[in-house]
Specification:
2 copies of one chain form a homodimer. Chain A is α/β, with parallel strands linked by helices. The first copy, chain A, has 3 domains: 59 residues, 434 Repressor (Amino-terminal Domain); 132 residues, Response regulator (Rossmann fold, 3-Layer(aba) Sandwich), CATH 3.40.50; 132 residues, Rossmann fold, CATH 3.40.50. Helices cover 42% and strands 15% of the residues of chain A. The first copy, chain A, has a 6-stranded parallel β-sheet with strand order 2-1-3-4-5-11, sandwiched between helices. In chain A, strands 7-6-8-9 form a 4-stranded parallel β-sheet. In chain A, strands 10-12 form a two-stranded antiparallel ribbon. In chain A, helix 5 packs across helix 12 and helix 8 runs parallel beside helix 9. The termini of chain A are far apart. The relative contact order of chain A is 0.11. Chains A and B meet through helix 4, strand 1, helix 5, strand 2 and helix 6 of A and helix 4, strand 1, helix 5, strand 2 and helix 6 of B. Strand 2 of chain A pairs antiparallel with strand 2 of chain B, so a sheet runs across the interface. Chain A binds a DNA duplex (16 and 16 nucleotides) through helix 2 and helix 4.
Chain lengths: 345, 345
DNA sequence: CTGAAAGCGCTTACAG
DNA sequence: CTGAAAGCGCTTACAG
């Protein structure tokens, strides 16, 4: 298990534009131009340079380029956690989108405490833009980023007072669709398990949900707090469901799928009730697991693809034009009917 | 939705070490030294510099530092997909480990085709090290990276002929434990659903599994190919299980949890059979969903924490000492007994 | 189209 | 301990 491999010669890629220039018998500037899209070089020069570059295995140093041009083509992506599948999926999509447009993702996992430290690091790396996914920066810090002129997009978060642009799905409409679906499904005691109280997703989903109920002249039967965690949701489910049948909900809207799975586990395994026989469950996000047959969860689709595309688009537009104007993109929400809730006749 | 925010002044953070030096009335070198751990600066100078830096909001430019020092403190992380939860989790852990040690993850999602393109980009960014997770580079490319002197660690992959170091769990032992568990559980027709034929994880898990069976004088009843995909696994399950009871397996080892969920869905929902009543299912990885009650999957733990720690350790050791010696770390595998397979008496 | 030169913001010998 | 100077590898006006 201990083959030695050649000691590395130095710490960096050895071949520079100067060396290519020497071999090609042109100036170093000429080499640079060949590797700068849009720069004017004669075909003959280009040919000589490309040949020399190939021989030497030359690759422009992205760091040097970033220094001199003031464009790192680096996008900081801040994430707090990846256990809710929605985030890895959107991270994958976003990363592919950005790569396709010549940018690269610099990943920052945020810790609960030290936001300052994270921002400091981000700014040190001279990123061209910032995307905040599950993470939320204090508005002070978001403002600090904005002040340095770096575009910021919050993905799946909207903060009215922040200068950052945002990309969300239509959480209000999604909540409304779910309420409508549940009422029309004949449910009479409809409850809500909330995510984090301070999150815009929870606020909007809940507001839309109540509005949807109100449109049918119905009010929510009960509410519990799950905080977007697995354990919090399980506890909320116990609170709501450990009662006599007439006293407990016959339908629950859980603020995201991740929590809904925990809720379903408690209801079926711990309480021995059936879904949707005893209680209907609906979630939000339509993460891949929602389609798994063991859950078969009725949910609202947030298209990670569309969210990633829109985020990349807004960010790059703001990077490449100097007009940094706050944008708030809201993507359509779509109901996905599966088997975890009674279906309207 | 269209608040204007101040136009960004320039493209980069405006304050440089020179400006701090001017304000603090010291040389630019002195400023640099204050921000270089271990450099010798008098307390008085340090004080003056820190004060000026705070006033101006100075942060050293990491790119400039990287250029001059030949250390970018950037680690390229190559991943092919994130839908198997094992990868996001290990990505999160690894990223935290590296951040804690002053490194940052530069994420590269690989596309099936253009490996060259990815390697080119990685090398352009002057990364100090490379981690390959679900991605596999052709051995040519791995060798090319190694030749430039950049340490490479393959995570959850082992390639004997590659100069790259590796971190895996003990897949052979894990397979063996599962075989032993299944045989002792009284199963008589034990089948295997394979991952990707060319992957080291599949090869080792399968080899260990057969060895474990052999130790009991048993041979595998059947085998199908799932290719580590959800759909492949579902199809493999149909192939194996759509037969008369005596002709089909009474236990299946599925090469990873991600596939096992698909297998369980097919068996229960499509075929109407019970687990473990009609057939026992065991998986490998112990991803979070394996503990979800709807699956309650007996599996083998790969500690993502330990794998991330070891990867960071090996990588950083190789970066910070010049001796680049191939290392192959194999972490212990542990059986986790849940309810998806009959338990030995 | 092309080359010489300046400069991005920093670290690090080198003298003192 | 400190400052002046060189230099990391590049892009980009500026002349020609």
């Amino acid at each position: 298990m201990h083959d030695t491999i050649p000691k590395r010669p130095g710490t960096r890629s050895p071949v520079t534009s100067g060396e290519v220039a020497r071999l090609a018998r042109v100036s170093q500037s000429a080499v640079s131009r060949v590797f700068t899209p849009g720069a004017s070089v004669s075909p003959a020069t280009r040919e000589k340079v490309m040949q020399a570059a190939t021989v030497l295995g030359y690759r422009p140093n992205a760091l040097a380029r970033a220094m001199i041009s003031g464009r790192s083509r680096l996008i900081a992506l801040l994430v707090a956690y990846l256990d809710n599948q929605f985030y890895p999926i959107v991270l994958e999509q976003l990363s592919r989108q950005l790569q396709g447009r010549g940018y690269q993702v610099l990943l920052f996992m945020t810790e609960p405490g030290d936001q300052d430290e994270v921002v400091r690091r981000i700014l040190q790396y001279q990123v061209d833009g910032i995307v905040m996914a599950s993470a939320t920066l204090s508005s002070d810090l978001a403002r600090e980023c904005a002040q340095t002129g770096i575009p910021v997009v919050t993905l799946n978060r909207y903060v009215a007072t922040s200068p950052a642009s945002s990309v969300t799905s239509d959480n209000i409409e999604g909540g409304r669709l779910l309420a409508d679906f549940l009422v029309r499904g004949g449910h009479e005691r409809i409850a809500f398990i909330a995510g984090a109280e301070d999150s815009s997703t929870n606020r909007d989903r809940e507001a839309g949900f109540y509005r949807g109920l109100a449109e049918h002249g119905v009010t929510a039967f009960d509410r519990a707090l799950g905080n977007y965690t697995f354990e919090g949701a399980a506890e909320a489910a116990r609170l709501l469901m450990k009662r006599k049948p007439a006293k407990r909900p016959d339908a629950i809207f859980v603020a995201n799928d991740h929590m809904a799975f925990a809720v379903m586990d408690v209801i079926r395994t711990e309480l021995g009730l059936s879904i949707p026989g005893d209680v209907s469950i609906v979630g939000f996000d339509d993460v891949p697991e929602a389609a798994w047959k063991a859950y078969d969860l009725t949910s609202v689709t947030q298209s990670s693809q569309a969210m990633a595309e829109t985020t990349a688009e807004i960010l790059i537009e703001q990077i490449e034009t100097s007009g940094v104007r706050k944008r708030a993109a809201v993507l359509p929400a779509k109901l996905v009917v599966r088997g975890s809730a009674k279906v309207p006749l």
